[in-house]
Amino acid sequence: MQLSTRTKILHITIAFTMIFLLIIGIYMSETETFSLYPLHKSIGVIVFLFTAFRVLTRIREGWPKVIGNASKIQLAMAKIVHWGLITLTVLYPVSGMMMSGGGGHGITVFGLELLASNHDDISGKTIALNETISSIGHNLHETLVPVLILLIVIHVAGALKHHFFDKDKTITRMFSFK
Ligand code: HEM
Ligand code: HEM
């Protein structure tokens, strides 16, 4: 089974953007580098459009059929990891927007204001639009970090196993555009 060009372009774009935002997100919140927040949020909102389109693509085209003979356990693992990853690629931007939008910090994409911040000029404080939405978003964004990292590690390890041990075309099929 060949993969559609759309599947391959969406995979490569979303995969590298998610890894980039994961690294930048951990770095900026650990070191409190607030100057990176607008970049993180802007790319995150844009990647959401790609992830939504990818979900529609999976509904229309189905999932890639596994190459070679895989055991039932391997098939189940691949299914769980693919479902987990695609879910997190949607949950991450959504929870980010809930956290920032609900928290009153606003949502801006490279200077284009999608949701204004709710800043009180007199007290100098940012007032949340909806505390509950904001804290659900924050909790999801924070607690899912180890889950996302674990899924990516298992996923990449599985892909490398296909390439170097099984010596099949799983990786080349996904990354070649000939
Ligand atoms: C950079 C290292 C990565 C490699 C080498 C890689 C490799 C692959 C390969 C070979 C497939 C096809 C599997 C098959 O044919 O059964 C695949 C599918 C998939 N990958 Fe990755 N991947 C990487 C990163 C990621 C990341 C970071 C994510 C998400 C956060 C991701 C999400 C997915 C999903 C959801 C699928 C299912 C098919 C689709 O919707 O595109 N991958 N990956
Ligand atoms: C699309 C994929 C995204 C990924 C993979 C991602 C990932 C992350 C990660 C890993 C962190 C660090 C969490 C921690 O260690 O506490 C973080 C922080 C943050 N993200 Fe995202 N993010 C994404 C999208 C977004 C979006 C769309 C927004 C808002 C519009 C956003 C807003 C934030 C904010 C404000 C923080 C800092 C939270 C804090 O200071 O506690 N993110 N992100």
UniProtKB/TrEMBL annotation:
One GO CC annotation: plasma membrane
Keywords: Cell membrane, Electron transport, Heme, Iron, Membrane, Metal-binding, Transmembrane, Transmembrane helix, Transport
UniProt key word rRNA processing: no
A Pfam family assignment: Ni_hydr_CYTB
Swiss-Prot/TrEMBL GO biological process terms: respiratory electron transport chain
Cofactor: heme b
Localization: Cell membrane
Top-level taxon of the source organism: Bacteria
Lineage, broadest ranks: Bacteria, Pseudomonadati, Pseudomonadota, Gammaproteobacteria, Alteromonadales
Transmembrane segments: 9-28, 34-56, 76-94, 144-164
UniProt-recorded name of the protein: Cytochrome b561 bacterial/Ni-hydrogenase domain-containing protein
Family: Belongs to the cytochrome b561 family.
Every Cytochrome b561 bacterial/Ni-hydrogenase domain range: 4-176
Molecular-function GO term, any one: heme binding
Major place of residence: membrane
Membrane topology summary: Multi-pass membrane protein
InterPro entries cross-referenced by the UniProt entry: Cyt_b561_bac/Ni-Hgenase, Cytochrome_b561_oxidase, Di-haem_cyt_TM
